Amino acid sequence: MNHGTALPAQSPLPDSALAAMQHRADPLADQTIAYILGEWPEGDVAVDAPQWARIETVNRLFGQWTDNAGLVGWTAQGEGVDAAMAQALDRYVQTAQVLPPWADARKIERAEQLFMEHGALSCILLFCASLPECYVIPDLSSVLHTSGQLEQNAEYRIRSTAAMIFPVMLHGGLSQRGAGVAQVLKVRLIHATIRNLILHGSPQDAVQQLLAGGHGHVAPQALPMGGGRQAMFQTLYARGWNLKSDGLPCNQEELAYTLLTFGYVFLRSLRHLGLRLRAADEEAYLHAWNVVGHILGIDRALMVDTMDQGQALMARMQARGRAEPVTPDPRPALGRALMQTMENSLPWRMVKPFPELMTRYLCGRETAGDLGLTQPVPWPSALLFWGVLLLARTIDAVLRLVLPRFSIVRTLTRILGYHFMSRVLMSQTRPLQLPTELLNQVDEAVHSWSDDPHAPGWLNRLEDRLTTRGSWSLNLASRTKGTP
Known about the structure:
Oligomer: single chain
Number of helices: 24
C-alpha cells in the first residue's frame, strides 16, 4: 500500500461507455462460480440438483474467511469440495485479496477516523440516505424485490449491509490487522452467484450469445419447493431475465452506483446536515471506498475521486435508471419496508416518522417520490422534526464561531442512531453475522461512541440518559461463535 502517490484525475466516461457497463460484470468472480456450479440442466431444476449442494458448500467455506490475515495461503478443503471447486476458490481468494497499487494507507486511515468520529450518525446516514438512494435504480431494486430480501426480510438485509461496512471501516479493516477484505470477498462472490442463478450460467457466456445474435432472454422456470436457506437462491433461478433490455444483473454500472451510495451519498448527507468536511477529508473517504470497490471487482473508470465527480456520475446514472422504469415498480414496497424497520426500532410514537422525514431531507423529493415516501406524516411529528432541525442548524451556525467542532445536529442524530443500533444491529438474540472476535471489535467501537468528544459534558450526560446505553451491552463473552 503506498503513502501518497497521486493518481491522475478521472475523466468522465462517455455515455456510450457508461451504457456498455450494463453488459459487463466481474469475470474473476463469475468464472469462479461457473467452475463451481457447472452447467445447469435444461428446463426446470429439481430441489436435489447438485448445484444447490455446491452453493451450500461454498457458504460453509465462507465461514473460514474470518480475517484478512487468514486469507493468505488459504486453500479450500473439506466435505463436498472437489478439485474444480478448490482450484477455482483458491485462485479467487489469492487474486482478489490484493489491494490495488494506488491504495493510499494514510487516506484509508483518515477515512476510518472520520467514520469513528461520527459514530452512530454514520449508521443513520447509511440507512436514511445510502440505502434509500441505492433502491432508486429500478433494475437494481427488481432483483431485491424478486428475492423478497427487502419486503419480507428488511431487517436481515440492513444487518447484512452493516456486517460488511463495520469490518471495512473499523481501524485497520483493509489491512492485515483487520477483516474488511475477507467480508468484501464474500459479498463479491454472492453477487456472482446471483448473476449465475438468474442467467443460468456465466454472464460472459450470456453476453457472447447475445452479441452473436441470440435473443438474450432467460425464460422463467418452475420454482423448486425446497424452502429453507435455499429459497432465495431458487427464487432467483426461477425468475427469468431479459439480457437485451435489462443488461446483466448486478452489472458494473449498478455496482458502481451502489459504491457511490456508501461514499459520495454519505458525504453529501453530512453537508446537508451542516457537517461538511474539509475537501481533503472528503477525498480520503472516497478513496477508501474506491479501494473497497476494487476488492468488489468494480472498474476503476467507474469510481470518483471528488464530490463534484460523484455528483455528476450519480446524476447520470439515476437519469439513465429512471428513463427505463420497471413494471410493476418494486421501489415503493422496498422503501416502505426500509422505513418500517427503522420506525419499529424507535421507542416513542412521536419520533417514529423521523426516519422517513430524514430520508426526504437527505435524499430530496425525487428520490422520496421514487420510493413512495410522499404520504403525509402526523403534523406534530413533522413540526417537531423540522423545528428541531432548524433550531439545531441555527444554534450550530452560531456556536461554531466559538466551538468549531461541536454540533447539536450531530448529537441529536447520534441519539437516534443509538436506538437504531441497539434494536436492529446490536441485538443479543440476533447478532450480526460476523466472527466472535470481529463482533467484539464492533462492540468496542460502538461503546466508544458513547460520548461526543466535541460536546460539553452536560450534553453527553443528557445523551447518556436518552440512549440508556447500559441496557444494550452485547455480552459477547456468553455468545457462541458467529457464522460469517
